[in-house]
Fold these 4 entries.
Entry 1:
Amino acid sequence: MKNFIFASILFALLLTVNAAPFQKLNKRALNFGPCYPDVDSLDINVRPDPPESEKLASFYVSGNLTKNDIIDGITILLIQYADFLGNPIPDASYYRHFTDSFKAGTPFYISESDLLIPELPDSYQLLVKVGDDADNSVLFACAFVIVGGRSEISKVFDFL
């Protein structure tokens, strides 16, 4: 009888552990990397990490630009999502003008809180960049990460 009770408890425990969602237990922190070798990189902190579809997230961005000044009202922070191949996800970009100016060589910090994350595919790219709103081709700094896919198969996307 004792063996039967022990086996039943062990079986119930095994079923419970096996039913736990593996995805939730296997989360990895995002490791942002530079977009291009000749562009300054950014330090990105995201909460929750990684962002979850259709939930709120906060982004904390800092860095130290070596070539360009951040100008109040002109320089923007852009947060963009793209599919695994680098095609931008429609209606999935956020931008904000800086409200302070920073000279090149001066550390800066900006945050964006309570952003509603769009519905995301299983594998996607996340790009955070700082650039000039007046001239969309001027990129000051950027960082990107691939979430849920193999990072060696990446296409750095260029838009804005």
Entry 2:
Amino acid sequence: MAPLMFLLFKPSFDVPFSPYCVSLLLNSSAFQIFIFVLLSMASSSESRSRGNGKPHVLCFHQDLAPLRRVKVQGPTRGKCFYGCSHWHNSCGFFKWADEEDRVQELQFLLFERDTRIAELEILIKELENEVKNLKETNWKLEDDVAEMAIENTEQLAIISSATVDKKLYNLLVASWVLFAIVLLLLERGG
């Protein structure tokens, strides 16, 4: 029965059916109502083509509910109704024959609403997981940035140290050159 539902029902937005979604739909009362509506619609469309042209109505047992007439005295005397054919084990089904039947339409609307709610709950869970993953990624990136900052500080210290060493070396070489010039000048002048 479950594959039938997925052939007939297409969600209003593209969400892959996860096992969670399938279990949520199969365990919901909305799914049971949907199946009931499908069976009722299928049985009523099949039954109209049988013989006398009168619609056949199924009770909750999914058996043919016979058309009967009220025989007791009162305001409904003579009015036709459908009732469960199992009077000894009745399912409680009752429907006036001339009553406009909006029950199936309302049940289907209820099913659509419940299905939409289930779709949105699934979408919320997926978005919550995505937010969780993004937060974890953000934390990892913050850790990486902190590590890079430490590495950069260490490299700057090494570069600064090397620069100072190079300056000191250049200063030492310059002082030796200056010392050599001063010695040469002293030897020539003196």
Entry 3:
Amino acid sequence: MKNTCSNFCLVCFAISMSCSVCGLTDRCMKRCVQCKAVIYCSKSCQIKDWTVHKLKCTKKEKDSFLDKKNNMQSQNQPVKLFIKHNHEKHCVLIPQTLLNPKCILNIISEELLIPLDSLNLIAKGKVVNEDNVSDIVFRMKIRQFMAVGEAQESEKGMHIGDIDTIVEQLNVDRNKAIRGLKHCGGNLIDALLYVGDSL
């Protein structure tokens, strides 16, 4: 039954919220799952009415449109991966359209500042690599990871030529050269002596 007056009133609302079979108005009413237009007080009333109702029961087009829209939106939303590294939790966004495993690992590598060749990912006790990363992220829908690997030191404010000089002269990795320059306030000669002494 529909509201009989043009303005919303509690009497008309109560009538419209009564059971389609017995007319009972209860605090907890049930709707037809498919059309959402008919209300029942119990499962037994729904079963009694089904022979008549099934002839006119159809899924609402509006709902199916909304379902499709929501499904499309969820497909376009990036996947959030939570990666723990050095006692910090990083949130990395991976586009759902990205299927290339190398690109997925590159995004994680860039976000964590860990070179790809020294990045080790673990998810649910499994080592994650190029062969299984797409499967783990998109099919198994695992979102929690642990990363192992030395993060790259920030080169911000450093002269790249100074870093390269320390790496070539002392045959050390780039991170060690950057830490040496930071420790010595950017002074190349002091950094060469400092890093050389630590070898």
Entry 4:
Amino acid sequence: MNGIFQVSEAISLALHGMGILALAGKRMRIREMAKAVEASEAHMAKVFQRLVRAGLVGSVRGPAGGFELLKKPSEISLYVVYRAIEGDLRPKSCVLGLSRCPFRECMFGDFPNRVYEEFTDHLKSRSLGELVGFEDETSGRGWIDGSQGNAQDNNHRQG
């Protein structure tokens, strides 16, 4: 039986992959991230290309290439990651997707809308930094702070 609450594999890979990048504090290859979450490299690559297009991660080609966060983990809300992968979150009026209920009123009442509101508020109020335990502005070794160089160079500058 499926759980009562589900998110797509793509959003799960996006959040977990970005969390791994934040924890690692360095540029990483798709192979490493996919292995860490036991996912297909092809699916992880597709997800990360969407994150690149959204401006959340950078991609570097070549022997020292890979993906890296473009912002501090504390500056990336989970909602922004969700929107990059799934688009805007919209309330569902019917859990079955029906345009018209066959009953006088929905058997779930306003519960689906309350879940939507709580889930949206949760995503907007939590950052990637909080997810991985980097709650202050100086944490998150894998971000680019606007200066030249990659994440590893930033680590050396930060001490």
